[in-house]
Design goal:
261 residues; alpha+beta; Glutathione S-transferase Yfyf (Class Pi), Chain A, domain 2; four-stranded mixed β-sheet; 7% strand; binds glutathione
């Protein structure tokens, strides 16, 4: 690994374009007008593991007979759309997915995928158990995914697939943690059919979007072999079962409308 001498004060070196790329500051970088459709829900997103949680949720609600009309727009995070003024108005954290419920007066802005799923589950009383035990267990695994997922995405996935060079130290560290998480899910799913118990819930949607896709080798090419995915048979069986759900298939195929002409 390249030797690195810590400076006294870290300084950002701008290797990025004017609009895209992360910076050590938050807030909008340019004026932007996002399209707004007629549907009660306006979703600004992209089909990443966090983004598909929202479209799968909407499609699951539709399958359950809920009248949940939504418009979905493409936020190209590579182009820096998430740093435009209208998007930042909805999500000051500049990450997809971001949702507006314009059936509320004034309109309601919802960001963080977990918050979006919980909001929709509570609003329509679906995909979250009503009894205290089931509900709490669903929340446990919902929050667990939001906290644990970044070790997989920002940790394992980043160093396995995207970092400019392969570095043993971070790959060892995040592979170990990812495998620990998979083992935890495998043990949990060895005892029950769904993440939080006997029912399919929002905890399955958020976890499948990361761990289901990971074990099905749909996230980082070659990672299924590298992680020895066959040693997590319960996760694999659950991942394949969820992938067959009509709403999941539809959620992955949703057409995103452009935000620019
Ligand atoms: N904790 C957030 C994470 C959202 C997130 O990291 N979104 C990524 C795409 S999967 C993003 O928008 N990245 C753009 C950027 O970092 O500039 C959530 O669950 O909604």
């Amino acid at each position: 690994m390249t030797a690195y001498e810590l400076p006294k004060v870290w300084k950002w070196e701008d290797e990025n374009s004017d609009l895209g790329g992360n910076r050590p500051t938050a807030g909008s970088r340019f004026e932007q007008t996002l399209p707004v459709g007629e549907a009660p829900f306006q979703l600004y997103s992209l089909a990443t593991p966090n983004g598909i949680k929202a479209t799968i949720m909407f499609e699951e609600l539709k399958e359950l007979g809920v009248d949940v009309d939504y418009d979905v727009y493409l936020i190209n995070i590579g182009d820096g759309d998430q740093f435009g003024s209208d998007f930042v108005e909805i999500n000051p954290n500049s990450k997809i997915p971001a949702l507006v419920d314009q059936s509320q007066e004034p309109r309601l802005e919802i960001f963080e995928s977990g918050s979006i799923l919980l909001y929709l589950a509570e609003k329509f009383n679906k995909l979250i158990p009503t009894d205290i035990h089931g509900r709490t267990e669903t929340m446990n695994w919902l929050f667990w995914q939001i906290g644990a997922g970044p070790y997989v995405g920002g940790g394992f996935g980043h160093f396995f697939a995207y970092a400019p060079e392969k570095m043993k130290y971070p790959i060892d560290r995040f592979t170990m943690e990812t495998k620990r998480q998979l083992d935890l899910l495998d043990k949990t799913l060895g005892k029950r059919p769904y993440i939080a118990g006997e029912e399919y819930t929002i905890a399955d949607i958020v976890n499948w979007s990361w761990y289901g896709r990971l074990v099905l080798d749909d996230l980082y090419e070659g990672s299924a072999e590298f992680l020895d995915i066959d040693s997590y048979p319960n996760v694999l069986e659950w991942a394949r079962r969820i992938a067959e759900r009509p709403a999941v298939k539809k959620g992955l195929e949703v057409e995103y409308k452009p935000i620019k002409d």
